[in-house]
Specification:
It contains four helices and 18 strands. It is mainly beta.
Length: 250
């Protein structure tokens, strides 16, 4: 099931995407979620980020090749950091380059969407807490990442976390193919099996440190191939089995 959050005629709703149509639902997938009799053409709606999380938890250096390309050691356990919810950007909307940075880069990532409150979740029970998966772009001001003592500013600018295009609830995250492109040119190409810590390890670990609420997002880490983005670029992050998250750069 592909769960989309969208705007139509000034109203925001959730729905289920099938082909080029959206079945409109009442409520949300994090509570009472019921189909209505209304359907819309996908071309008629404006897709929004598929969730409004209370927090975005990110996992750093989760691909050895990425850690190597920025000269960082691979951590012994998942490296957590956060993006603010104000960084979220909708599919199709622009990533805005801040004047403070001269080196903004893309980081296409697989994103876990939490379905119910998760605290101290055993690895063997992790799947019970996952609503589905979407695509995230952990946009980073790389120069600021290494001049600041913390990553909050370099990762947290407005529009620095595009999410979408929807939540895929039946996604097979084992061996998923991730690819990121700038103006059609492939910059990142990797499989989720290349991650140092897998989905189950990550969710269990995060839940032992912070309580995860329904709708929260965990970005599972960036593959190698991070690349500078500039005004006028068109960025696409694709995960086979989910779709394509596309954003222009402004």
């Amino acid at each position: 099931m592909r769960i989309a959050r969208f705007q139509h005629d000034g109203k925001v709703a959730f729905g289920v995407v099938a082909g080029d149509r959206v079945q409109v639902y009442s409520g949300s997938p994090f509570g009472d979620f019921q189909p209505t009799e209304s359907t819309l053409a996908l071309s008629e709606v404006e897709l929004l980020a598929p969730t409004q999380p209370s927090k975005i938890v990110c996992i750093g250096m989760n691909y050895s090749a990425h850690a190597a390309e920025i000269a960082q050691d691979v951590p012994d356990e998942p490296l957590m950091f956060f993006k603010p919810s104000s960084a979220i950007q909708d599919p199709g909307k622009p990533i805005e380059l801040p004047w403070q940075s001269e080196q903004v880069e893309l980081e296409g990532e697989m994103a876990i969407v939490i379905g119910k409150t998760a605290k101290n979740v055993p690895i063997e029970q992790v799947d019970e807490y996952i609503l589905g998966f979407t695509i995230g772009n952990d946009v980073t001001a790389r120069d600021l990442q290494f001049t600041d003592l913390q990553w909050a500013r370099s990762k947290g600018f407005d529009t620095f976390c595009p999410l979408g295009p929807w939540i895929e609830t039946e996604f097979d995250y084992e061996g998923a193919l991730l690819e990121a492109r700038i103006n059609g040119h492939v910059r990142q190409h990797a499989y989720s099996t290349d991650m140092n810590f897998g989905v189950r390890e990550i969710l269990s670990y995060v839940s032992q440190n912070v309580t995860l609420n329904p709708g929260d997002v965990i970005l599972t880490g960036s593959p190698a191939g991070i690349s500078k983005i500039e005004k006028g670029d068109f960025v696409e992050c694709e995960i086979k089995g989910i779709g394509v998250l596309a954003n222009p750069v402004a």
